[in-house]
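User: For a benchmark we're assembling, each entry needs the component sequences followed by a predicted structure for the full assembly. Here are entry 17's components. Please fill in the structure.
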Amino acid sequence: MKKLSSNELAQRVLRCDRYAGARLISLLEDGNEDARHTLKLLYPHTGKSMIVGITGSTGTGKSTLIDHLIHRFRKSGKKVGVVLVDPSSPFSGGAFLGDRLRIQRHTCDDGVFIRSMASRGHLGGLVRTTAETIRIMEAMGAEAILLETVGTGQDEVEVIQAVQTCILVISPNMGDEIQALKAGLMEIGHIYVINKSDLEGSTQALREIEAVLSMKDHTDDAWKPKVVSTVASEGKGIEELVSAINEHHAYMNQSERIEGIRFQRAEYELGLVFKNELERLVLQELKRKGKKKKFIREICDGQTDPYTVVDEVLKNFLKKETPE
Amino acid sequence: MKTERKIKVIITKVGLDGHDRGAKVIAMLLKEAGMEVVYLGMYQMPEFIIQAAIDEDADVIGVSYLSGEHLTFTEKIVEEMKKKGLEDVLFIAGGVIPPEDIPILKEMGVDEVFVAGTLTQPIVEYIKDHARK
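Assistant: Structure for entry 17:
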């Protein structure tokens, strides 16, 4: 594809041109400046899709569940976007993205757009590009968007803020998983899926999760998380899962609540963009003046510390940037 | 935010060829060389591979052949790439390929062929030098 202007690229994305959408995502991943302008043009055309996040440890069957969910959404006539996040290697910076392997039924379906993404190393980068990729898929007309992340790190838990419905997938043969859930992950799920429920221990896992959930303080009005048992490899329990998703979607779409979600998403995105842009601008300025290395060396030599450097740099930077 | 262009590679098997060890090894090697590898696995058809390459905005498609179907499938993949306008995507083939077939594959449109036994460095270097910038 030849290089396009921001306007042309935005127009093509809005016409659901997959080449344009795919290229725009790459540009954002690479931190391209022009891509931000394209996003500005697309933003007004987004915000109406159903966004479902699926998280959980590796090997619990998230991708296989997604394959079924795509199938169901397509049957109900929805166009579907899928974002699959896998970790980057902290050593080489490369990544092995293997989620597509289990999601192949719909590769050649015009109504399905699937994109794998590496988490990459940069601060807030994963969450930001993921949130932006969801916006791009919305602009391309996807009515349902599925986001798969590896649910082990802080970044991935944070990603959940970009979705409306969060599904946490566990499998019964992971004893530690339940412990981890008790330790805090239990707050993020709207729906809990016990996949591979044909394995030994699934009834116990179900009881434990229900027990933990029942301990939560529920007001009458609050969403009561659903627990669904599935065997994704055989397509069992998918119907129940889809009903649970639809039920949560309907719950979230009640007027005051949807406003709250819109507010939360916008607040979250604003924070992300601020954080990234400030960091980029400041570091770029430091680099241009050749000061970044100098500061790092001074910190290493014990002459100063990161806090003092940031205080000083920001004070000067903000003085210069503020119009007053 | 760090700005860095990563090379994105699709590694796949095609047709009924069930030998995926080599493809996995190559995928891991390219990952270790800093590339982002989308691994599609076995039993892919040319249209699947090309659609994945479009959605992933891949710079390189690498197909591993170990059961003698390289001529048949390469022709179809190249045809599909042309049809879908992926002329700037690098196409490499690897695996068990008789020496006399290599010129035929190149004539069809394969950019480079790496037969079983190739050292890893030349593969990585070739991709880094030839993938679209």
